[in-house]
Amino acid sequence: MTSAIKPEGSDLASRATGAALRESIEQSARDDGLATVDLSGVQTLAESFADEAFGVLALRHGVDWVVEHVEFHGASEAVLTTIARVIDRRYPVEVA
């Protein structure tokens, strides 16, 4: 069973912390096929953190991989918007 990955703190900002979260997500996805990320305690998410954690995931593995292997719990609309924005910046979807 997958245990949730819960970043420490309510205001996440540093690239180093984002990289550590990304590594935890990748490891959990390798081990369990799914990484569950609990963002219920997060009030603010800096774009630098989100880019390092989630933008780089999309760049390395593709958006489909993120959708299939990462599950978000408890994230506010603002946090999810920041995540979507950095993923789109790293891996833009072209409309035909």
From TrEMBL:
Pfam families: DUF4325
Occurrences of domain DUF4325 (ranges): 18-79
InterPro entries: DUF4325
Name of the protein in its database record: DUF4325 domain-containing protein
Species annotation: Spiribacter aquaticus
Lineage of producing organism: Bacteria, Pseudomonadati, Pseudomonadota, Gammaproteobacteria, Chromatiales
